[in-house]
Write a structure and sequence with these properties.
This protein is of the alpha/beta class. The chain has helices at residues 5-13, 15-21, 24-44, 164-174, 206-211, 247-264, 287-299, 310-320, 336-340, 342-350, 363-368, 375-400, 410-426; strands at residues 2-3, 51-56, 60-62, 67-75, 81-87, 99-104, 109-116, 122-125, 129-134, 140-146, 151-155, 188-194, 216-221, 227-233, 241-242, 245-246, 268-274, 278-284, 326-330, 354-360, 404-408. It is built from 13 helices and 21 strands. The strands form 6 sheets. The chain has a 6-stranded mixed beta sheet with strand order 18-17-14-19-20-21, sandwiched between helices. A 5-stranded antiparallel beta sheet has the order 1-10-9-5-6. It has a 3-stranded antiparallel beta sheet with strand order 2-4-7, with no helix packed on it.
């Protein structure tokens, strides 16, 4: 049961005669009378169970984009029902104007929409739907919260997709030049043509020859597709806030941009989110299949406050990939890599694959280096300089093992990793 604002207004109206009568008893009798009327009105209100509720939302929406939740109410009772309904969502769903009034004749259906603009990626699960039915006097009514399970998957923003057209243009410029750098006759079928003196007789296509008057041979071209394995580190260092968001968010942007670019280049891409266990996985042979799967898989990963099992990373890649591939490790490059075994893992992977390490740099370190106005700022600048030197030493050790390393601020890490991929492809190192 609940009472409406009309009950409060009616109770307040009794203050006027109470002032003239100067009677406390009259005031209490007036208030009790209003409460009795409100209780009677609530008893006369339709039961909440006579209102059927159904809620629907799109399957997914990209972060920062707007969508809506749709509530459908149906009056299952035999008389008109009036009241209000509240479509409750967690704050991160960004729900606005989620309270709606309704007046439904018996058997009628009404639909209400609640705008949603999520502020966090992941699965946003809706709260209960609260339904109120008013009595005929509108002094009181019945209220009940109904569990209507609904979930909206908020995909990563993928703001780095603005860099994709320029990288695709460079990829088209490279097309036709990369195969020249590859050795061998190739194993990917290209076309059929007439036999000329000097052709390998083993390349004769006897079926096509039987259908024609001339001898026909098959031509091949070097394979242009390669395997790209992207490992997104979800251990504790991915939770460190760099700029306005955790380091993991920039790593996700880099993984999505590289996946879109590599899949359009014809490479086979596999994405793995890993710390001590595999948190998510996505794979696809084409961009149309890969990108929705990658966005959905990366949408739900969160940082775990554990250390990365780098031996497990190496073992997982060895199990998943049998041929030479590009292994992209999106992790944090700092002194913790020495004790965690990351350097040994990179060296082990580099012996069989081409490794590319992408790390998000903290732009605050560059600002700390500029402070000289006080003793505290000088010590802060010295600490930042020491951290920078230690990180540079780790980068040099990674490069000495043959790995490529990209260290860039959050907004630049995605295009930086994509450019490194294009450079490796152009040089024939993939």
């Amino acid at each position: 049961m609940y009472i409406t604002g009309w009950s409060a207004a009616l109770a307040l109206a009794g203050a006027v005669p109470a002032l003239f009568l100067r009677s406390t008893a009259f005031s209490w009798l007036w208030v009790l009378g209003v409460l009795a009327l409100a209780a009677l009105d609530a008893l006369l209100a339709p039961r909440v169970t006579s209102i059927g509720v159904r809620r629907s939302v799109p399957r997914s929406v990209r972060l920062t984009e707007e969508t809506q939740s749709t509530l459908e109410l149906v009056n299952l009772g035999g008389r008109r029902a009036r009241g209000a309904v509240r479509d409750a969502w967690p704050p991160s769903a960004g729900a606005r104007d989620n309270r709606h009034r309704y007046s439904l004749p018996a058997g009628e259906v009404a639909r209400f929409t609640t705008p949603l603009r999520p502020t966090r990626r992941g699965d946003r699960r809706a709260a209960a739907v609260t339904v109120r039915t008013e009595g005929p006097l509108r002094l009181g009514g019945r209220q009940r919260s109904l569990d209507v399970p609904t979930s909206l998957r908020v995909l990563p923003e993928f703001a780095s997709r603005k860099h994709l057209p320029a990288r695709l243009a460079r990829l088209r410029e490279m097309d036709g030049a990369s195969p020249v750098l590859l050795r061998g006759a190739g194993s990917e079928f290209d076309s059929l043509r007439e036999y000329v003196i000097g052709d390998d007789v083993r390349s004769i296509d006897w079926r096509a020859t039987a259908r024609r008057a001339d001898v026909v041979v098959r031509t091949y071209r070097p394979e242009r597709d390669r395997r790209v394995v992207i490992v997104v580190d979800t251990a504790r260092l991915s939770a460190v806030r760099v700029g306005a968001a955790p380091r993991l968010e920039a790593a996700i942007e880099a993984a999505l941009l590289l996946s879109a670019l590599a899949s359009r280049a014809g490479d086979r891409v596999q994405i793995i989110a890993f710390d001590r266990v595999e948190r998510a996985r996505a794979a696809g042979t084409t961009a149309e299949k890969l990108m929705p799967a990658a966005a959905s898989a990366l949408a739900v990963i969160e940082p775990s406050l554990v250390e990365t099992d780098w031996k497990g990373v190496v073992q997982l890649i060895q199990e998943r990939v049998s041929q030479r591939s590009l292994v992209v490790l999106l992790t944090a490059v700092d002194t913790a890599m020495i004790d965690s075994g990351a350097l040994r893992a990179v060296a082990a992977l580099q012996r069989e694959h081409q490794v590319l390490v992408g790390s998000v740099a903290d732009p605050d370190l560059a600002q700390m280096l500029l402070g000289r106005d006080s003793v505290e700022e000088v010590y802060t600048a010295a600490a930042a300089a020491r951290t920078g030197l230690e990180n540079d030493a780790i980068v040099n050790r990674l490069r000495s093992s043959g790995a490529e390393v990209v260290v860039a601020p959050p907004d630049d890490i995605a295009p930086g990793v994509a450019d490194a991929y294009l450079a490796l492809k152009a040089s024939g190192r993939l």
